[in-house]
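ESCALATION

Customer reports they have been waiting on this structure for their group meeting. Please prioritize. Original submission:
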Amino acid sequence: MELNAYSKDQLVALEQSLTQRYDDFKKAGLNLDLTRGKPAADQLDLSNAMENALNGNFRAADGTDVRNYGGLEGLPEMRAFGAQLLGVKPSETLAAGNSSLTLMYQYVQFCLLFGAQGADSAWKNEGNIKFLCPVPGYDRHFTICEALGIEMLNVPMTATGPDMDQVESMLKNDKQIKGMWCVPKYSNPSGEIYSDETVDRMAQLGKIAGANFRIMWDNAYTVHDLIDNPPQLANLMDACRKHGTEDSVCITGSTSKITMAGAGVAFVGLSETNLKHFCAWLSSMTIGPDKINQLRHARFISTYEDLLSHMKKHAALIKPKFDLVQKHLSEGLTGKGMGNWTVPQGGYFISFDTLNGLAKEVIKLTNEMGVKLTPAGSTFPYKKDPNDCNIRIAPTFPNVSEIDKAMPVFICAVELASVRQRLKSL
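Update from on-call: job pushed to the front of the queue and completed.
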């Protein structure tokens, strides 16, 4: 029954019933966590064999002794692996340490302070620099901008990616917009896959924007499918080559949710010109990455087919968790007019929108009942959700039993907050 169809007396009775459920959950002493998109231990166990992948052989395919210094751009076999993962050429790929977030921060800092193609190209020369941020989006992207003093401008997401009409209009009218964040496949948190048209329009932004504009293309979930025969993301760098805008993109990814989250290999894909400048800057702070870890990965996942087979094992572990969240949401809230949610085909999150003005209250109530959620506003720059409605649900880390206990708590919070809001409006 739709919330708006209840009489006031019915709402009062429903509020009393939900409050009793809320009190019962509080007394149950739950301590569950749905806050971060981390792999669970059984996912990490899939890569335990990597520990013995070297077996005393520390020579890479080209004869490099990986125990020693050098190799700033990474092992050739891992550059080739990363190139296939990112959709670029090996000569455009850097294989680095375990964190693509670190590479993103370093590249934005490099562009801001030192210039992507020399000092004259530094963003700091142009005053107040801005980034476009599709929302809801990834909180750590926003943290990078805040840390570096870059102003953030919201752009709404659509079913096919960012609202490209708005993106193009903003870039044409404000040349101090120097970058844009993107999670193009299974967007964090809402799960969209950018359409072919969106990718092609993204590739043309370098012609519209001011000088030294960069698309920060964080393709974190490129092989993190939950279904067979998933939709494919168009290749951004190929589109850029067609439009002559290769210098306008920075593509990142990693094996962090493929092998071991704390010991993966991160990659950045840049035009050869951009990569040359970036590596020259990196050489002032490092002699080279952890090549032993890179060689472990190259031996453990030696072909792209090996990678896809490995990712099917991940999907087999986490899809039941996503399905269980969807089951609870569908059975608990369908037809009640108290919110809506995404049904992603991959990635690590489910995005839930409450009625306007209720995300903070729902998260507060859920926390009081013993279930932690990502703080309200986290999916927006400056933690300011203008409608106070978006909540990110992360099902991967808890086990199935924990999800089965947590979701009724969440649904109770949504219902209780919605009923109380409706009563106040009468």
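Sent to customer with the following note: The longest strand covers residues 151-158.
Escalation resolved.
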